[in-house]
Write a sequence for this structure.
């Protein structure tokens, strides 16, 4: 009897863990995390440009080198914030975005999505296996679900692409990246930055091509992502729980 009660309590805790809402931090335009530091990925084009960020964020050039290694220009570098700068941002009411989510639910792979440039489904003679979300170059792409990085490589028309595997044979793909920030085998939390938006591969402008697959079958991401008011016309009926 005692053992049965133990099993019931255990199952109850699993259900609570899967279905309880939790507020999780999401990497956005202002706050990103990399190697345990808070900061931002920026395209640094010259030493003068680097000096500007070093003074703006109240850090030293060595702080930048510690995170990025040898500094190369015309590349995205992670510029860590000083405690002082974080406090300044907080004083202005700027803090990291958070999103209310259940452990079992996907979140949007970009902190802000205003429109969809191409939906999932037939596109002329070809089938579009994902949802295209326009964004400016360098916008952080976040993991839509806890999981493990399966591959990071150049995939022809998809350009620089990140593939992740998740629980229950779910899989996500993030294509046309400008820069990939994770490597194969990394375990990633939902909301964590994994790459930066670009237009690599066959692409007409900066955007994220985002896919959700189940047992390798591409599904409409909008059926899984939280409802967004401004995308109402493109939403299919959300019947997945
Ligand atoms: Zn696409």
């Amino acid at each position: 009897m005692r053992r049965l009660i133990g099993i019931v309590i255990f199952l109850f805790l699993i259900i609570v863990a899967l279905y309880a809402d939790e507020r999780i931090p999401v990497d956005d335009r202002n706050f990103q995390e990399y190697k345990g530091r808070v900061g931002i990925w920026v395209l640094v084009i010259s030493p003068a440009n680097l000096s500007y960020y070093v003074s703006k964020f109240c850090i030293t050039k060595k702080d930048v080198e510690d995170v990025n290694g040898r500094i190369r220009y015309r590349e995205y570098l992670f510029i860590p914030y000083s405690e002082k700068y974080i406090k300044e941002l907080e004083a202005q009411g700027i803090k990291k975005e958070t999103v209310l989510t259940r452990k079992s639910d996907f979140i949007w792979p970009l902190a802000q999505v205003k429109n969809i440039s191409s939906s999932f489904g037939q596109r002329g003679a070809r089938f579009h296996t994902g949802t295209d979300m326009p964004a400016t170059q360098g916008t952080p792409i976040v993991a839509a679900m806890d999981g493990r990085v399966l591959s990071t490589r150049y995939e022809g028309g998809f350009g620089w692409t990140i593939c992740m595997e998740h629980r229950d044979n779910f899989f996500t793909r993030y294509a046309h990246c400008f820069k990939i920030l994770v490597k194969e085998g990394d375990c990633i939390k939902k909301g964590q930055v994994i790459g930066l938006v670009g237009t690599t591969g066959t692409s007409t402008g900066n955007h994220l091509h985002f896919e959700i697959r189940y047992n390798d079958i591409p599904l409409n991401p909008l059926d899984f992502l939280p409802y967004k008011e401004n995308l109402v016309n493109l939403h299919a009926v959300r019947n997945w729980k």
